[in-house]
Amino acid sequence: MRNKIEIENVSYIYSQGTPFCTEALKDVSCSFKEGIITGLIGHTGSGKSTLVQLLNGLLKPTSGRVLLDGKDIWENPKKINEIRFRVGLVFQYPEYQLFEESVYADIAYGPKNIGLDKDEIDKRVRQSAQFVGIDEGLFEKSPFDLSGGQMRRVAIAGIFALMPEVLVLDEPAAGLDPMGRDAVFNAVTAYQRTTGATVIIVSHSMEDMAKYADRIMVMSNAKVVLEGEPSEIYKNAKTLCSIGLDVPQITRLMMKLSDMGVPNRTDIFTVEGARDEILRLLGKGGNVND
Amino acid sequence: MIKDITIGQYFPGESVLHHLDPRTKLLLTVLYIVILFMAKSMLAFILIVLLTAALIPISGISFKVIAKSLKPLLFIIIFTMTLNLFFTKGEGEPLLSFWIINIYKEGVSFAIYMIVRIICLITGTGVILTYTTSPIQLTDGIEQLLAPLSKIKLPVHEFAMMMSCALRFIPTLVEETDKIMSAQKARGADFTSGSLIRRAKAIIPILIPLFVSAFRRADELAVAMECRCYHGGEGRTRMNSLHFSARDLLVTLVFVLFGAGVVLLNIFTRGIGIGI
Question: Which of A74, A193, B118, B132 could be disulfide-bonded to B17 (CB atoms 3.0-4.6 Å)?
C-alpha cells in the first residue's frame, strides 16, 4: 500500500515568543496509507487536532514537511487552496459552521468555491446528501431547523461535496446518540468505499475505532507512540493505559478471562470476534449464527 | 492570526505590578496620564521616560511584546508627528523653508514631544494596567471604586457584571472566530483576495455562525447563572476580597514623587528658559 500523506520531522509551536507558547507537536514523523481508514487516537491535548490541521495546510509547520503524494504541500504557498480541496477536513462540531439559508446552499458552498459549473454542483450536492442520508425533501429547509444529528450530517456532506482524495474527520461523532454515531460512521464508510479515498478519523473512542478503522495511530504528549493494525495496537493494553487511554471493553473482558486461567486469545476487539472465540473454546467451532 | 493581537491583553506574571491591588493600579493609571500631560519641559519628559522605561523590566513584560503593541499605532504616531512638524508656527526664523512649507524649531520639539507622549501613554498604561491585571481583577477593581455611586441608585454591580461577562467572552469569541474561519477555509473560502465587495461578502460565512453561537452561549450562561441562584449584587460576598497593602502605598508614593518632580521641573526649567 502506498503512503498518501507523509509527515517528516514536523514540529508545531503555538504563539511562539509569548508566555503562552506551547509545543503541540514535537518532531513527529508518520505516514497515512492510501485507500484505507486510519484511526488517530489520543488523549485531550495530545496534539491530534493540531496534526490534522497541518494535513490540509490550515496550519504551517514550525519546522518539517508535510507531503501529499510525495510533494510538499507548502511548495507553492499561493496554491494552498488547491490542497484544501484535495484534503477535506471536517472539524469538531462541524454543525457550528453552517450559515446558508438552505441545506442545499450550504452543501453547495464548497463546490462553488472550487468554481464548478451548476450541473456539477447539483450532482455533487445530491450525491453527498445521499452518502449522509439526508433526504432531498430537506434541501429547502433552513439548516438551523434541523435536529443536532441532521445538522452534523449536513455539515459533513458539505465536505463530501468537495470530493476530496483525503478525508480527515476530527471527532465526527462527539456528542451524538448511538444512532447518530452509526449514521455518521456509515456515511464515512459509504464515501470511502465509493470513492476509494484515504480517510483519517480522530477519536478517543476505542470501540468506534475497533469497529471502523483499518489501521490505528496513537498519539501522546505531542508524539506518535504506537502505529499498526487494531489487533496489534490493542495488545499493548499497558502502554495504552499508561497514557490515559483504554482498550475496548470486550478486549478487557478477554484479558480478564485469560487472567483467570482460560486459555483464550486476547487480541480480540469486537463483540463478534469474542463470540467466535468463546464458542471455539467451548468446542462448538467458529462462525455459528445463532 | 487573530490570536496574536497583544494590545490590551493580560500576561500572567509574579512582578510587583502584578501583585498590586487593582484599585491602586486604576488610580495610578489616571495619575500617570495626568503627569504625562502636565509635563511641559524637556527634563520633565526625560523623568517620565525614565519612569516608564523602569516600569517595563519591573513588570516582566518583554520589550518585544510592547514593540508589537505599538506597531498598529505607527500610522497615528507618524500622522501626528507630520502635522506638528509642518503646522506649528514659531517665533524666530524657520529652520527649513521650501515652497509653502516652513519648519520651525518649535515644530520639531512639539513633534518629538508628541511621539514621546503617545509611546509613553500606550506603554505606561499597558504595563501598569492592562498587561499586568487580569480582566476579573480589573472589573472587581472598577466595581469597588464605583461602589459609592450605588448609593445614588446607579446599577454599579450590574454594570460590572456585564463588563466581566463581556471581557470573559472576548477570548472565547476570538477562539470561535478562529475556528469558524478555519472551517470555512477548509471549504475553500478566501478572505484575503478579491475586490472589497468580494471580501465583505466572504465575511458572511463567519459572521452568521458567530452570531448564532454568541446567542447560544449567552442563553447558556444565563441559565447557568440562574441555576446557581444569581440574584444581583445585594448581599453577595467574594472569594477574593481586595486589600490594600504596604506595597500599594509604597508604589503610589513613588508615583506621587515623580508627579511632584514633573511639576517642579516644569516651574524650575521654565524660569531658566529651556521649556517649550
Answer: B132
Q: What is the residue type of B68? A: K
ipTM of the complex: 0.82
Is there a contact between B212 and A144 if contact means CB atoms under 8 Å apart?
A: yes
Distance of alpha carbon B198 from alpha carbon A113, whole angstroms:
12
Q: Does residue B222 sit at the A interface (CB-CB below 8 Å)?
A: no
Pairs of residues, one from chain A and one from chain B, whose beta carbons lie less than 8 Å apart: 62
| A17 at B interface, C-beta within 8 A | yes
Contact call for A17 and B64, based on CB within 8 A? yes
pLDDT in tens, B235-263: 777 777 788 888 899 999 999 999 999 88
Would the CB atoms of A84 and B204 count as touching at under 8 Å? no
**pLDDT of res. A287:** 52
Backbone angles phi, psi at A50, to 5 degrees: -65, -45
Say yes or no: A158 contacts chain B, CB-CB below 8 A: yes
Distance from CA of A88 to the nearest CA of B (A): 7
| Domain-wise residue ranges, chain B | 2-271
Instruction: Tell which residue, B133, B119, B8, B6, has the closest CA to residue B53.
Output: B119
**Residues A168-225: tens digit of each pLDDT:** 999 998 888 888 899 999 999 999 999 999 999 998 888 888 889 999 999 888 888 8
For A227-278, write each residue's pLDDT tens digit: 888 888 887 877 888 888 878 888 888 888 888 888 888 778 888 888 888 8
Closest chain A residue to B189, measured at CA: A113
When mean pLDDT is compared across A20-29, B25-34, B202-211, the lowest value belongs to A20-29
Instruction: Please report, for residues A76, B31, B228, B258, B259, the alpha-carbon distance to residue B251 in angstroms, rounded to integers and kept in the order given.
Output: 55, 12, 39, 11, 12
| CB proximity B210 to A under 8 Å | no
Torsion of CA B134, B139, B143, B144, to 10 degrees: 0
Report all structural domains of chain A as residue ranges with CATH numbers, in order of start.
3-247 (3.40.50.300), 248-290 (no CATH)
Do the bridges between strand A166-170 and strand A198-203 make them parallel or antiparallel, or are there none, so unpaired?
A: parallel
B8 CB within 8 Å of a chain A CB:
no
Please list every residue in chain B whose beta carbon sits closer than 8 Å to the beta carbon of residue A96.
179-180, 183, 209, 212-213
Q: Would you say residue B272 has pLDDT above 80?
A: no
